[in-house]
Amino acid sequence: MTDEPEVRERGAGQVVLELDDELSAPLDQARDIYKLSDPALSEIGFESLLDELLVRVRDLLGVDTAAILLLDEETQQLVARAAKGIEEEVERGVRIPIGRGFAGRIAQERVAILIADVDHADILNPILRQKGIRSLLGVPLIVEGELIGVMHVGSLRTRIFGQRDLAVLQLAAARAAPAIERARLLNALEREHYTAVMLQRDLLPRNLPQVPGVSIAARYLPARNEVGGDWFDVIELPRGQVGVVIGDVVGHGLGAAMLMGQLRTALHAYALDGHGPARALELTDRFASSLGRSVMATAAFGVFDSDTGSIHYASAGHLPPAFISADGRARVIELALAPPLGAFGYKPCPEHELSLEQGETMLLYTDGLIERPRVPLPASIELLVEAVRGAHHPEDACLMAMDQLVPQRGPRDDVAVIAMQNDPIPAILDLELAADATMLAHARRMLGRWLSQYEPEREVATEITIAVSEACANAIEHAYGPARGSFAVHAEAHDGVAVVKISDHGRWRAPRGENRGRGLKIMEAAMDGVELVAGEHGTEVLMRRKLSRQ
Amino acid sequence: MSLLDVRLQAADGIVYAKLSGDVDLSNAEALGEELTALTPNDALGVIVDLSDVDYLDSAGIHLIHRLRENLRARAQMLRLVIPSESPVIHTLRLAGLSWDEEIVETADAAREAFAAS
User: Fold this and answer.
1) Within this chain, do residues A234 and A290 fall inside the same structural domain, yes or no?
2) Does the pLDDT value for residue A133 go beyond 80?
3) Residues A144-165: what's their mean pLDDT?
4) Based on the domain organization, do A222 and A329 belong to the same domain?
5) How far A446 CA sits from the closest chain B CA (Å)?
6) Of A438, A519, A521, the CB nearest to B96
7) Contact A469 B57 (CB under 8 A)
8) Model confidence over A449-483: pLDDT tens digits?
9) Angstrom distance (rounded) from CA B117 to CA B110
């Protein structure tokens, strides 16, 4: 057996090496090479895999440099992706066109090529010369007949790579190529999955708004393998109204997530513009139809009025809402639907008026939560009803639904859930609010809800609200110094008299200017009694007012 | 949530501001500055339409008060559209203010007042 390869000239100074079939790599080296196809390798991550392969190959062959270039199919160029000893290849983003130079010819002809002396060879990549490499040996990386790249090794001293070296390198290439391809696919998938997850996270509301008189909880869980197009939304509307939305774009991946973002934005904007649930869904359907692509999505939108306890609800082909009463009974209410978004065809969307009693929760969800293989839909919905029975708070409802219905390994399809409760009105109102003028509306709304249980005349309720809001505005303006941060409203009613205490942590200051003086005047005119108690740690305003005018 | 929505029109020397929602300490000052800034010296005056305002507090009164003073100093006219059943009337009454000269029931009545002047 000779160690001299059969040679054919290929380009200046390039020699094609063909392996003698009889010859195989030495046993000890072969054992090491077999490690290259270790399936665990493709799990260490793409970049680490390439690095690990090159280190092993370099050690096996006793060479100074090793590099992997992978085919970029779009440009038909080889791109340096990993290198040992010639890291500059990667750092400078070396690209070699197929068919040109050393690596380009290996790729085009799918043969091993030897360069005995770089000085006399046709080499495209200047880095090889700059690094002082004298001899090179390269082989194609092929998976299932497809070229995926080139691996080459180099020596800083002149070296005639022989059959034994070629056998080792080819075996390494044969073993490494599938691992590289597997890791590359995994990497691309992961990148898309990661991007889609991040995108979806950005497309969903980050923080749910704090709406007076309403508690809201929501969950989103991507599918085990892929993101989808599920969404939820909360829209704070004027006059104590709040909208909750659930939606589901049919399909998976980045495209579905992006379409979801568009539909969520459209519906959100229509709702803010004052359109009720049915009209907002109709407009979102027109919007979906105008996107110039096929859209199939379901959505449900409910607007809750915290003053009246009513919910206006409309659904575009979405699953029926579930309700959990204050005492924990759960049920699903089937309502007439419009077709899914993108398929209305100008059919009007039916709108329903439901009531949400104090302490009652409405739960909206996507099919990812309830769908079970081989379980018919009504039975799946019944499982949901059983899962949320006994929930007393929206957070509990979400928790119980997710806990009991989502498989341990994660859902097959993505899951969105949103639950909204009409908070029970307490007999005694106790609020601690940030000393910020934007909290005044919150205080007024909470006070109004509390007052409503005594059914005062509208004028009485309005006057009490005005007086309390003025006192709160005072507290906010006085809140200064180290204890700045909050003020408290405490209200209770005895024998037909409302008693409200507003306390802050600042010191009472004489009303400055016409404006504040007016505030105090309004409080005195609106209430039957106003007392200011200025203490060392804060000021209290104590006010009382008969709830009836008689 | 923005409490207040403001729609502005300027035509025939009249600045018309239609407010919807709540006017309180959280937005009154910014609103007052905006209204004053939008009224040129040569405008005939301002109509502030409060017919869709649910709530007005003392900071809101202060804003109208200052707007009223500023316009008077420039000999410009102010009309406030406040229907008699508006909750805004409550606040004005509690504050002991009437502003009888400025208050009209409808936006049309406000425009007529400008036409007549």
Assistant:
1) yes
2) yes
3) 90
4) yes
5) 15
6) A521
7) yes
8) 999 999 999 899 999 999 999 999 988 887 655 55
9) 11
pLDDT at B50 over 90: yes
Do A477 and B25 lie within an 8 Å CB cutoff? yes
Residue B117 C-alpha, separation from nearest chain A C-alpha, in angstroms: 31
Cβ separation of B24 and A239 shorter than 8 Å?
no
Co-location of A224 and A173 in the same domain = no
Choose the weakest-confidence range: A120-134, A331-345, A380-394, A420-434.
A120-134
CA distances, B83 to each of A446, B88, B90, B103 (Å): 26, 9, 11, 9
Phi, psi of A123 (to 5 degrees): -125, 130
Most confident by average pLDDT, A10-19, A53-62, B15-24: B15-24
Last residue of a domain, one of A373, A397, A422: A422
Identify the pLDDT of residue A1: 41
The tens digit of pLDDT for each residue in A219-278 reads 888 887 677 899 999 999 988 899 999 999 998 888 888 899 999 999 999 999 999 999
Residue position matching structure tokens 């082989």: A139
B25 to chain A: closest CA residue: A437
A407, burial (CB in 10 Å: exposed 0-12, middle 13-18, buried 19+) = exposed
Same domain? A341 vs A216: yes
**Which of A192, A220, A247 is the last residue in one of the domains?**
A192
- Identify the domain containing residue A259 by its residue range: 204-422
Q: How far apart are CA B58 and CA A181, in angstroms?
A: 71
**Res A390: pLDDT:** 95
Domain boundaries, chain B: 4-116
In the sheet with A330-332, reading across from the earlier edge strand, the strands are A214-221, A415-422, A361-365, A322-324, A330-332
More confident residue, A127 or A273: A273
A271 with A165, same domain: the answer is no
Per the CB < 8 Å rule, is A518 touching B54? no
Q: Give the pLDDT confidence score for residue A199 in this predicted structure.
A: 72
pLDDT at A491 over 80: yes
Given a contact cutoff of 8 angstroms between Cβ atoms, the answer to whether A496 and A464 are in contact is: no
Record: contact A437-B26, CB cut-off 8 A: yes
Handedness of CA A159, A162, A165, A171 (dihedral sign): positive
Contact B94 A462 (CB under 8 A): no
Q: Which residue of A has its CA nearest to B97?
A: A518
Q: Do B57 and A466 touch (CB under 8 A)?
A: yes
How many CB pairs below 8 A link A and B?
76
Closest approach of A519 to chain B, Cα-based (Å): 6
Question: What per-residue confidence (pLDDT) applies to A137?
Answer: 94
Q: What is the pLDDT of residue B20?
A: 93
Residue B49 contacts A where some CB pair is shorter than 8 Å: no
Q: Which CATH number fits domain B4-116: 3.30.390.30, 3.20.20.70, 3.30.750.24, 1.20.120.680?
A: 3.30.750.24
Instruction: Using DSSP, state whether B20 is helix, strand or coil.
Output: strand
Q: Does residue A467 share a domain with residue A345?
A: no
How many C-beta neighbours within 10 Å does residue A122 have?
15
Total domains, chain A = 3
User: How far apart are the CA of A397 and the nearest CA of chain B, in angstroms?
Assistant: 26
The answer to the question of residue A336 being in a domain is: yes
Residue A333 lies in a domain: yes
Chain centroid to CA A396: how far?
22
Say whether pTM exceeds 0.90: no
Tally Cβ neighbours within 10 Å of residue A218: 22
Q: What is the ipTM of this complex?
A: 0.92
Q: Which of A441, A516, A525 sits opposite B22 (nearest CB)?
A: A441
CATH code at A153?
3.30.450.40
- A469 vs chain B: nearest CA distance in angstroms? 8
Query: Are A239 and B5 within 8 A, CB to CB?
Result: no
Q: For residue A539, tell me if it sits in a domain.
A: yes
